[in-house]
Design brief:
CATH class of the largest domain: Alpha Beta
Oligomer: single chain
Strand content: 25-35%
Shape: elongated
Number of helices: 9
Structural class: alpha/beta
CATH superfamily of the largest domain: HUPs
């Protein structure tokens, strides 16, 4: 059985990708679709997560293909060996004529078939720029891609990322540690990153908001509760610890009032006395610091 390999970042998966894949599928029995830079998301060059890219491809491509995540290792001399271990066997590599992919695989003795750039000038970069500028981008991508971007509010994500990258500012976020009927309130995330994991409710700070007002709004949107802030816990400055490159989270604590409701980007809202061992975004650190604060206050 002949097997081909086509590697791309698919940020996002666009019509040029789809037409190439359909062409490659006619030449081999099975096509391996390698998702490069698979560990990244929420950055200017890689705004979509691995899970989101897989969904884009699976809902657009029909037939003899298999998707393989290929994380970056930032080492050209070892990269082909890295891909070989992940993909096991392939007979031909499909690569652009002037790409580093072509040169690296040819240097290791692999057969490489060149593909031409999209005649309509579609590329991941051009799609991302069109999205950021609110230009007509939906005719550049398959329906599966546009549906996913609409569902996850990807336009807002990309615009925010472009704006933050423009000024090289960290992304500012807020979260709340909420006591409600003697329990803590946590949300289960319904979107990547950290989909299906529990976290503190909160969100990003929007233009014109104070930290407190952003926290109150975020808690209300995700849990339905009115958040009565009792104090400021701390700020958490993280670089490279999750798919967002650089973010600063300000954390407040207090009590919730009202009726619990499942809200934005939330699959489930729970009350618990016991905090799960692993929360999204390293939120366990918030509770460790909160417990220390309460102990010191009660001395």
């Amino acid at each position: 059985m002949s097997r081909g390999l086509f590697i791309g970042r698919f940020q996002p998966f666009h019509n040029g990708h789809l037409s190439k894949i359909e062409s490659f599928q006619e030449e081999v029995d099975e096509l391996l679709i390698g998702i490069g830079s698979s560990q990244y998301g929420y950055t200017k060059e890689n705004p979509f997560t691995l899970e989101e890219r897989i969904e884009m491809i699976e809902n657009a491509v029909i037939g003899n293909c298999r998707i393989i995540p290929i994380p970056d290792i930032n080492n050209f001399s070892e990269w082909v060996s890295h891909v070989e271990k992940l993909c096991k066997r392939f007979d031909v590599v499909y690569a652009g004529n002037e790409t580093i992919t072509k040169k690296l695989f040819e240097s290791k003795g692999h057969k490489v078939v060149n593909w031409e750039r999209d005649k309509n000038g579609i590329s991941g970069t051009s799609v991302r720029k069109a999205i950021a500028k609110e230009e007509n981008w939906k005719n550049m991508v398959p329906k599966s891609t546009s549906n996913l971007i609409d569902r996850i509010d990807g336009v807002k994500r990309i615009k925010n990322i472009f704006e933050n990258c423009k000024y090289k500012n960290p992304i500012l976020a807020v979260d709340g540690i909420i006591k409600y009927n003697e329990n803590y309130v946590l949300i289960k995330r319904n979107v990547a990153p950290f989909k299906e994991m529990f976290a503190c409710p909160g969100g990003y700070v929007e233009w014109g908001e104070t930290l407190k007002s952003a926290t109150i709004r975020g808690v209300k949107e995700e849990t339905g509760l009115d958040f009565c802030i009792e104090g400021y816990l701390n700020y958490y400055d993280k670089i490279g610890k999750n798919p967002i490159e650089h973010y600063i989270i300000h954390v407040f604590y207090g009590t919730g009032d009202g009726e619990l409701k499942v809200g934005d980007n939330t699959k489930e809202v729970i009350m618990t006395k016991t905090i799960p061992k692993t929360l999204a975004f390293n939120h366990n650190n918030f509770f460790k610091d909160y417990e220390k604060r309460i102990k010191n206050a009660n001395r």
